[in-house]
DNA sequence: CAGGATCCGGATTGATACTG
DNA sequence: CAGTATCAATCCGGATCCTG
């Protein structure tokens, strides 16, 4: 019941809210793509390298969905063979905190694993 | 190499870190389950109701994985027909921030949609 | 280079029935 | 109540080929 950040007090509300987010960011790749684009705009081929393991098909599919949802912007550049730059929108930037939180937890988790999981304070 | 909050400066590092998190929280349900259990311990049947849409099979499977990863704890209660209480562990609580961030974004997103998406500041 | 179309195997998940 | 087992449908996603 804090004010500040909207903090939801009800569990059911939280479930609904999380589902909403999931609908947009669900799947295996969207968060990764957003995270990358939060660092800098990239072209298709660059993303293909950065987002480890994604296939071309998946990448274009996910990019399209993100674009539809207004999280990223697509710009075709009139270069020699044609290149396409993807950049995050202002709205998309609202996800930066989220991606960072996820990444940070991942780091901490890894650190914990490497430490051999000592001090299990369960 | 900052101290404080580990803030990752490299995009590739972020991708790896996010993948680590995904391995633990991937799928459609784990975040929801964790979020619920962050509010209070619950029994199987309670979770089944709270986590809208999940099937019994999925619920028990996900719970098992979360338990293996040390995020939740399972306690069989010697009640009449037998009930099982699930509670979050200390380690699991480290995900609370994450679930809240996700939920808050979902709320904001919904608010934005309802507003008819005015002021598209793209 | 960007990305659509197609084919296809494997992973996910739901329904249902069953157990302790 | 808290699961497990089985079957079947679906979806995910990779490989490959093709276009502009």
Report on this structure.
Two copies of one chain form a homodimer. Chain A has 122 residues and is mainly alpha-helical. The first copy, chain A, is 56% helix and 11% strand. Chain A contains six helices and three strands; from the N terminus they run ααβααββαα. In chain A, a hairpin with a 5-residue loop joins strand 2 (72-77) and strand 3. Chains A and B meet through helix 1, helix 2 and helix 6 of A and helix 1, helix 2 and helix 6 of B. Chain A binds a DNA duplex (20 and 20 nucleotides) through residues 27-28, 43-45, 54-61, 63, 76, 79-84.
Care to give the gist of this entry?
Two copies of one chain form a homodimer. With 122 residues, chain A is mainly alpha-helical.
């Amino acid at each position: 019941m804090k004010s500040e950040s909207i903090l939801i007090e009800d569990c059911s509300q939280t479930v609904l809210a999380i589902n909403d987010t999931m609908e947009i960011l669900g799947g295996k790749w969207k968060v990764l793509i957003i995270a990358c684009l939060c660092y800098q705009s990239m072209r298709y081929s660059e993303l293909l390298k950065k987002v480890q393991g994604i296939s071309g098909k998946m990448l274009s599919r996910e990019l399209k969905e993100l674009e539809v949802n207004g999280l990223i912007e697509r710009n075709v550049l009139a270069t020699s063979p044609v290149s396409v730059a993807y950049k995050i929108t202002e709205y998309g930037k609202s996800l930066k905190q989220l991606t960072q939180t996820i990444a940070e937890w991942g780091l901490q988790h890894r650190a914990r694993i490497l430490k051999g999981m000592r001090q299990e304070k369960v």
